[in-house]
Design a protein that fits this description.
About 40% of the residues lie in helices and about 15% in strands. The chain is an alpha/beta fold and about 400 residues long. The chain has 2 domains: about 140 residues, Aspartate Aminotransferase, domain 1 (Alpha-Beta Complex), CATH 3.90.1150; about 230 residues, Aspartate Aminotransferase, domain 2. Helix 2 packs antiparallel against helix 9, helix 3 packs parallel to helix 9 and helix 11 packs across helix 12.
Length: about 400
């Protein structure tokens, strides 16, 4: 029987794991998404920090077209020239010496965990398997990554707790020091938490954690899947603190919307990763690598990073103004660069709907936050537009709160 599903009639055949908004988009251009009916939305979530260069960026589109006409997939049994080119680009601009390419951020974290454990095993310390993570973190949806983060709502129902994962309190360096012991392999953290409510580690804290790792022989893993690749106004968030990791996972903006991830490491940290110790069928395929090269060549440009810092400064200033004007709606402004968290008194899902009513798209987050994660190419004029729409959403939230208060009285 023919499938008669239309964009206006949701299918019953999708696994029900998403609480989807009743919107579908047909095309995108720059910072705009368009429905089939032609309604435009200002996209300040960018596929959750993925489309960092905006929708339909001409350089990325051309890279897909050119490569699609030549070769999509071979295998990592053979050399893939653009893999080598992208690895050279990433290592030239980071702490890293070597790169393993994946299809997603979760796979990059999996590789990071395996790399850390294999490092200690190769050094004759197989007991060092524990990965210390932090409350509020998010590292992906595989079994290892959900237990690495330890969020109760994500691990519930998925069987017994996996061994080798320990959890510390965000920001408590003294408590962290007490957790590092003879079975500790690595400390895993997001320099700026995304899902956890846009909380940032301070520069002093990151330096203290780097020092702790150096003193104890512990590897430091950064998850810069969301906060990396220009999002904070430097290519990677760790650069603000000058506290480089030993291993780092990246994804999201790496492919500008095409699925690409990577695990970066120093040659010392990756010493245990020998032929046969890890692999991927699709990771680093020619099509993904062509897009990745095009994306990174744009993201490393100093003028783009300077632009991010300028627009981020404006948005933070204006959002702080909204906090002052709507104290019963907006409680706090958080984050770094264009990873901005707005902590609310209003339920965040309600506020996201108020924003959508104004044709503004924003993301949810932990601790009752919403996140603004616009394309890094957002102009000051578009940023002003976003603030105007946020103001209207605040007005709607305030009106609802006052209505409920009056009703209760």
């Amino acid at each position: 029987m023919a499938n008669t599903t239309t964009p206006h009639v949701p299918s019953d055949h999708l696994m029900g794991v998403y609480a989807r908004a009743p919107l579908a988009f047909e095309r995108g251009e720059g910072v705009r998404l368009y429905t089939a009916e032609g309604d435009a939305y200002l996209d300040c979530m960018a596929g959750i920090a993925v489309t960092a260069l905006g929708h339909s960026h001409p350089k990325l589109v051309q890279a897909v077209k050119d490569q699609a006409e030549k070769l999509w997939h071979t295998s990592n049994i053979f050399r893939i020239p653009n893999q080598e080119k992208l690895a050279d680009l990433l290592t030239a601009h980071t702490f890293a010496d070597v790169v393993f390419f994946t299809n997603s951020g979760a796979e990059a974290i999996e590789c990071a965990i395996k790399t850390a454990r294999k490092y200690h095993w190769a050094k004759g310390n197989p007991e060092k398997i524990d990965i210390i993570g932090f409350d509020g973190s998010f590292h992906g949806r595989t079994l290892a990554t959900i237990f690495a983060a330890g969020n109760p709502s994500y691990v519930e129902g998925f069987g017994p707790e996996l061994p080798g994962f320990v959890h510390a309190k965000f920001g408590d360096i003294e408590a962290l020091k007490k957790l590092v012991g003879p079975t500790t392999a690595a400390i895993l953290l997001e320099p700026v938490q995304g899902e956890g409510g846009a909380r940032s580690w301070t520069e002093a804290e990151l330096k203290a954690i780097r020092q702790l790792c150096d003193e104890t022989g512990t590897l430091l893993i950064y998850d810069e899947i969301q906060c990396g690749l220009g999002r904070t106004g430097k290519l990677f968030a760790y650069e603000w603190a000058d506290a480089p990791p030993d291993i780092m996972a990246v994804a999201k903006a790496l492919g500008g919307g095409f699925p690409v991830g990577a695990c970066l490491a120093t040659v010392q940290a990756a010493a245990g990763m020998t032929p046969g110790s890890h692999g991927s069928t699709y990771g680093g395929n020619p099509l993904a690598m062509a897009v990745g090269v095009a994306s990174v060549e744009e993201l490393v440009k100093p003028e783009l990073l300077a632009h991010v810092r300028e627009v981020a400064g404006y948005l933070n200033q204006q959002l702080s103004g909204l906090k002052d004007r709507f104290p019963d709606v907006v409680l706090d402004i958080r984050g770094k660069g264009l990873l901005i968290g707005v902590k609310l008194a209003t339920p965040n899902r309600e506020f996201m709907q108020y924003a959508r009513d104004q044709h503004l798209l924003i993301a949810g987050g932990g601790d009752n936050c919403v996140r603004l994660l616009p394309p890094l190419t957002l102009t000051l004029e578009e940023a002003r537009e976003a603030i105007g729409l946020m103001e209207k959403a605040c007005e709607a939230a305030q009106a609802k709160a006052r209505e409920e208060t009056a009703g209760a009285a």
